[in-house]
């Protein structure tokens, strides 16, 4: 399953999606000696901080660049980058009208909608028929945030710069659609995946902040730690380094993993396509195979420690070994690839998204050598998504640094609402 971006939320009686993000960051940050290539890691981190502070403009290209240029000059350096008007040759650029989308998605097909642009993209979602969305979206503050159908993927050309296995192996595609008469903005948010954001219709102004400056980002007490609501005009007055870029139709923006972003829709009708893929660090983290005991009874306090972890993760990322690029074939449409995106029947969805696999046919993703791991908990064999199993995994991950926590928790917790989480946390723990 693709390592997806998450609804990162505060603790107490709120869903604990923040759990897996913490452990993912902790796994990378605590194993520093595995990846640092120099003896002066601290000095290296300072060098990257100075570079991000002095950077004031996002580099641009008037044409599509090669995968090698994109990967080595921008992705491995975690530097945002814009390619202008490169999506104007997609069929979607001309054929994705309102009627086309209604017909492609099927009039009665349920689409995922977020109410309130300030909650985008991690606010609560509701599913409504696509025709109902189009009947309401010009009067109400609704944003369609869902996957295109398999047929719609034929209208999207894979950007040449990502036609390599590192990008396409587990890539997902999202569709944004927002229609408002006045200019509106999102809160400041981040994704745990790498992104390419393309504009098919409309325009937008994007503000970006490096994770290196996460500790300077104000926290407004909102339940979502991945969202910060404040007036972006104060960024300069508070001395928070940031980048601003204007996007028009056909433009393609690379947004590195964990970078904070703020989107202002400038046009009345805005249609975006978002490509998401796991960072190369997911491959490097495979070196952390065994679990190790986490010292202390509690996780670091929020939200200050959370922002500190984002900074440390970025420093860690910038000092990792660069993986060689593998581009075996190019010039394909999205539908020619097999990955987890595209609308499908509920039955097929359940087959693919059935949570952790604890069957004997596939090895358990947790540490098999640790007899306390969920691999040896009988309830997880019977039903990996049962409340008692989820409670056990949460308790286990609270005591052990296990790679399985970063792999399995996103799949489990993305399906847990507030009521179910309250039920889970009220259960008597089976963890010893």
Automatic annotation (TrEMBL):
Any Pfam family matching the protein: Cupin_8
InterPro entries reported in the protein's UniProt record: Cupin_8 (IPR041667)
PANTHER family: HYPOXIA-INDUCIBLE FACTOR 1 ALPHA INHIBITOR-RELATED, JMJC DOMAIN-CONTAINING PROTEIN
Boundaries of every Cupin-like domain copy: 67-279
Protein name per its UniProtKB record: Cupin-like domain-containing protein
Superkingdom of origin: Eukaryota
